[in-house]
Write a structure and sequence with these properties.
By secondary structure, the protein is an alpha/beta fold. Among the domains are: 102 residues, Response regulator (Rossmann fold, 3-Layer(aba) Sandwich); 157 residues, Mannitol-specific EII, Chain A. It has 23 helices and 10 strands. It has a 5-stranded mixed beta sheet with strand order 1-5-4-2-3, sandwiched between helices. Helix 11 runs antiparallel to helix 13. The longest helix is centred in the first third of the chain and has 44 residues. The chain is globular. It is found in: Cell inner membrane.
């Protein structure tokens, strides 16, 4: 089991470097298809884009993505610089090399940052950050140019020779013995984008096309199985198969047919034989694509097929033969197997046992809401669906919820993304159960919904009910807002408001705001350094003479409980060229502070009010400005922290 999980994680890491950049690969493929001498519209000048794109742009994007996975934007920059040395030192596209140097660059700069954390003197942060990235990136570029590049060059040549041998000895169809079962184990993206895509791009550069792009992306084997269920299946499987077939073949989301195989494991034979038959047809007719077909839709395949009748015939024949073989074998399996109709829950359980993780398939069956105690449905403006890649099953779930929300007349925005791309300001995040912990780490302040299946409307109906019922009942004149104001007063108490302060620079001001939070017991001692670091990443000045310094995402674990400090600076202090008169130091935990922040945002949205607050003579006078506001002002997204 541990070996299996390790392989899956390694495969996911490889595909995560390529998958976000598939658009660039497709752009290169289309430019190649259109403008090369044998293309649709040959153009000698524009054809000059082909070689630099595949040699420089694509490896640099992979290197940047690999570094970013390890250590954010800073890791991505160092990873890209390190990759550049390998690109210049070799003559072939360095995709495999980028998958090595990108993460290595991110790892090195991450370790360096950890080593110096809390040891840099104030005022020298930008100098050290910039030069450390430049020096380490440069050293890694030299290392990749002199040492790693030549080794990866030899490895690439060996892999290319192995592929050539498989093709010329007509044993490439045997690859389906591994590819088709591995797809059901969720290694599909790892195989396609982590292994076949880099090798395929090199073949395109040499031969103008590559059949490797079709080995995993071919929708034929899956469609044949689904069509057999349409005609000879039973119960829920038969009723759901037509919709699944459309999504699989035209939408390119292959995960949707995996549970159908697991209901009848003998269908693995249908998938393998269908895939092998398609590959044999592809080799025989000399088909291939110009770029990855991602997602594996028939539309994507036709879009990146080289512009000639022979190529279209070969690629379409590949798909049709796969459909025919897998359909024929599936019919035999379904008609000769047991008559009981297994349901999708049983199939999902099988998948969990086989993979050690729940299905990412699009037949998500049961759900469970994982609520946070401070969930505020009245403040929800956006719901985010997140999955591993952010392109397949999460997009389907988002489409379903978006339609339901529109029907109810709600104004909530619904989007989908990869978990690695979740932002700190995410309010509601929907993921599959096995991914929820990762999502919580990326968006700890969000309300998380864990589901088994993205297409089950049950949890969405519960969420919509919460959103619809979020309108607060009218209160009597004696109790209106009393509890809310009392709670907010605990977050921003009079003793945490300091009048008539003056500071030489913003560092002094931020340190003072952090000191108040620390001495009040809201945060640990290191939180102030995190506030300074956060302001270096992006200014915490929000306009109208107001700044809201707060910690980084990593520093949230240093927050003991939510609290706010307020500092009045009548003469102002410079924040990146802006004069700040009011400073709110923020420590937010579990969304407890959001209501008070919304009050602050509304009060500070008016310049005249800020000027009055800058001249206030008492803490009580300042607090009065916040007691009659209760709605979030969307102009201040920083307050979603």
């Amino acid at each position: 089991m541990n070996v299996k999980i390790t392989v899956q994680r390694f495969g996911n890491a490889l595909s995560s470097m390529v998958l976000p950049n598939i658009g660039a690969f497709i752009a290169w493929g289309l430019i190649t298809a259109i403008f090369i001498p044998s293309g649709w519209f040959p153009n000698k000048a524009l054809a000059q884009l082909v070689d630099p794109t595949v040699k420089y742009l694509l490896p640099l994007l992979i290197g940047y993505s690999g570094g970013k996975l390890v250590h954010g934007h800073r890791g991505g920059v160092v990873g890209a610089v390190a990759t550049m040395g390998m690109i210049v030192g070799t003559d072939i596209p360095m995709f495999l090399g980028a998958m090595i140097m990108g993460p290595l660059g991110g790892f090195v700069i991450k370790k360096f940052d950890v080593l110096l954390q809390g040891r840099i003197r104030p005022g020298f942060e930008m100098l050290i950050n910039n030069f450390s990235a430049g020096i380490l990136g440069g050293l890694l570029a030299i290392l990749s140019f002199l040492g790693v590049g030549p080794l990866v060059d030899q490895l690439s040549n060996l892999l290319a020779a192995a592929v050539e041998w498989l093709v010329h000895t007509n044993v490439l169809p045997l690859a389906s013995l591994f590819i088709e079962p591995a797809k059901v184990l969720f290694l599909n993206n790892a195989i396609n984008h982590g292994v076949l895509t880099p090798l395929g791009v090199e073949q395109v550069r040499e031969y103008g096309k590559s059949m490797l792009f079709l080995l995993e992306a071919n929708p034929g084997p899956g469609l044949g199985i689904l069509l057999a269920y349409c005609l000879f299946g039973k119960g829920t499987a038969k009723r759901s198969a037509p919709g699944a077939a459309i999504i699989h073949f035209f939408g390119g989301i292959h995960e949707i047919y995996f549970p159908y195989i697991l209901m009848k494991p003998m269908l693995f034979i249908a998938a393998i034989l269908g895939g092998a038959g398609g590959v044999l047809t592809l080799v025989t007719l000399h088909g291939g694509l110009l770029a990855p077909a991602s997602p594996g839709s028939i539309i994507s395949i036709l879009a990146v097929t080289p512009h000639s009748l022979g190529n279209y015939i070969a690629n379409i024949a590949d798909v049709l033969v796969s459909i025919a073989i897998s359909f024929a074998v599936s019919v035999v399996v379904l008609k000769t197997g047991k008559n009981e109709a297994e349901n999708f829950e049983q199939a999902t359980e099988k998948m969990e046992k086989m993979k050690g993780k729940k299905s990412r398939a699009a037949v998500l069956l049961s759900s469970e809401l994982q609520e946070k105690t401070q969930f505020r449905p009245d403040l929800v403006k956006k719901v985010v669906f997140a999955c591993d890649a952010g392109m397949g099953s999460s997009a389907m779930g988002a489409s379903l919820l978006r339609k339901m929300i529109k029907k109810e007349g709600l104004a909530t925005e619904v989007v989908n993304t990869a978990i690695r791309s979740l932002s700190e300001d995410a309010q509601v995040v929907i993921t599959q159960k096995e991914l929820t912990e990762r999502a919580r780490q990326k968006a700890p302040d969000a309300y998380h919904v864990s589901v088994d299946h993205f297409l089950d409307a049950g949890p969405y109906e519960q969420l919509i009910a919460k959103l619809k019922n979020a309108v607060k009942p009218e209160m009597g004149p004696e109790e209106s807002g009393t509890a809310e104001i009392k709670e907010d007063r605990e977050l921003l108490a009079e003793k945490h408001i300091f009048l008539n302060q003056s500071f030489a620079n913003k560092e002094e001001a931020i340190r003072f705001a952090g000191k108040v939070l620390y001495e009040s017991g809201y945060v640990t001692a290191g939180y102030t350094d995190a506030m300074l670091k956060r302001d270096q990443i992006s200014t915490t000045y929000i306009g109208n003479g107001v700044a809201i310094p707060h910690g980084t995402e990593e520093a949230k674990k240093q927050i003991k409980r939510s609290g706010i400090s307020m500092i009045q600076v009548p003469d102002g202090v410079d924040f990146d060229g802006n004069t700040v008169y009011l400073i709110f130091g923020i420590a937010g935990k579990d969304g407890e502070h959001l209501n008070m922040l919304s009050r602050i945002a509304l009060a500070c949205s008016d310049q005249e009010t800020v000027e009055k607050m800058a001249k206030a003579k008492s803490a009580e006078e300042l607090l009065a400005y916040f007691e009659h506001t209760s709605e979030t002002d969307e102009r201040y997204p920083e307050f979603a922290y």
